[in-house]
UniProtKB/TrEMBL annotation:
Organism, as annotated: Belliella buryatensis
PANTHER family: FAD-DEPENDENT OXIDOREDUCTASE, PYRIDINE NUCLEOTIDE-DISULPHIDE OXIDOREDUCTASE
Protein name, per record: Rhodanese-related sulfurtransferase
Keywords linked to the UniProt accession: Signal, Transferase
Gene Ontology terms for molecular function: transferase activity
Signal peptide: 1-20
Pfam family, one: Rhodanese
Presence of keyword Signal: yes
UniProt cross-references to Gene3D superfamilies, sorted A to Z: Rhodanese-like domain
InterPro entries: GlpE_sulfurtransferase, Rhodanese-like_dom, Rhodanese-like_dom_sf
Domain Rhodanese: 47-136
Length: 162
């Protein structure tokens, strides 16, 4: 009986901690995201496959890994000239670590006439935590740039590479 109680406690604790972090992450995102700016979830792969993916993180983060076929546009150095070849009616998905920087860039895209801009919900962290693939110049990788030690707590899968 003691063994069964211990196993139950272990399972319960693990389940609670996993969901608590998920709840905490969702709460964080709710505080960061503008409710008026559209998000797209990783499981909506039919739309994601049709979209132009824009990585709004810094170059070093992108070089460690990014979504397949994503174009780096940066955040601090972002310029609309980087996207001038993308039609204004094209579906565009922006992302960063959690979605804060990408939302800012997405708003700039909308203000310049892009009509179908979405922020990837939870950013690359959520993407990886959900078991989706990331790539670098050599192909598929498990490496992820966690932005900083503080933000890296939200990254549960992959190998953290600074």
């Amino acid at each position: 009986m003691k063994f069964i109680s211990s196993v139950f406690l272990l399972i319960f604790t693990t389940y609670t901690m996993a969901n608590a972090q998920s709840f905490a992450y969702k709460t964080l995102l709710k505080g960061v995201y503008d409710s008026e700016f559209p998000v797209i979830y990783p499981e909506n792969d039919s739309l994601i496959r049709k979209a132009v993916l824009l990585d709004t993180r810094e170059k070093r983060e992108y070089e460690v890994s990014h979504l397949e076929n994503a174009k780096w546009v940066g955040y601090e150095t972002f310029d609309l000239d980087l996207v001038k070849d993308i039609p204004k009616d094209q579906v565009v998905i922006v992302y960063c670590s959690i979605g804060a920087r990408s939302q800012d860039i997405g708003k700039k895209l909308q203000a310049s006439g892009y009509s179908q801009v979405y922020n990837l919900y939870g950013g690359i962290f959520h993407w990886v935590n959900e078991g989706n693939r990331v790539y670098n110049q050599n192909g598929q990788t498990t490496d992820i740039h966690p932005y900083s030690n503080t933000w890296g707590i939200w990254l549960n899968k992959g190998v953290k590479r600074y």
